[in-house]
């Protein structure tokens, strides 16, 4: 029980909730599109069952992600993927990613659509949440993941529109979210078994596991995402320029 009262645990919970809010905006859109043709009496059921199925599936995926991240070099790959996701968050592409989500007038068909679409779109969430959970230490990572996801469900389902409006009004929220992903990527990269274990993979440079190194890696990752994201955004044509062409 004491492990659940440590600052590291609650910091990781906060990171998971923020990640789910920032990367889970698509979930609310998918749920709305998949359930839009349901009769009003079944719409709430479709939303609740679809969300429940998607969350259960995500917990299973994160369990495997946490297991896989113990394999040498996979944390490095995961960190690079997180950096890319963070850059995408700061410099999104102007396209409708949900145009192929079909609505259904049958309850279970709509629920199936929500779950399948969420599975396809969950890679970023799964990697990011697994990375955040790694920072809480061994022994209670899965309870942490489940707790963080459960807390985030009402935020995503009922508060998604408010969150989207806040992000539109205060773009700094998105910037901080992208930098958070960069922070997690930096701390994940330096904790890969290949750079930690002195008795194995001797050809790989080893990184001391001190708090100073950890914070420096996190700051470097956050600043790297910020710099690349701003650079990519500055080189990409604006939406009104694209429309005028």
Automatic annotation (TrEMBL):
Family matches, as InterPro entries: Integral_membrane_TerC, Integral_membrane_YjbE
Entry keyword annotation includes Transmembrane: yes
Main location: membrane
Membrane topology summary: Multi-pass membrane protein
Annotated GO CC locations: membrane
Keyword Kinase in record: no
Residue ranges of the TM segments: 12-35, 47-66, 72-91, 111-132, 144-164, 176-195, 215-233
Subcellular location: Membrane
Key words, A-Z: Membrane, Transmembrane, Transmembrane helix
PANTHER family given in the database record: MEMBRANE BOUND PREDICTED REDOX MODULATOR, SLL1022 PROTEIN
Sequence similarity: Belongs to the TerC family.
Protein name, UniProt field: TerC family protein
Species annotation: Variovorax guangxiensis
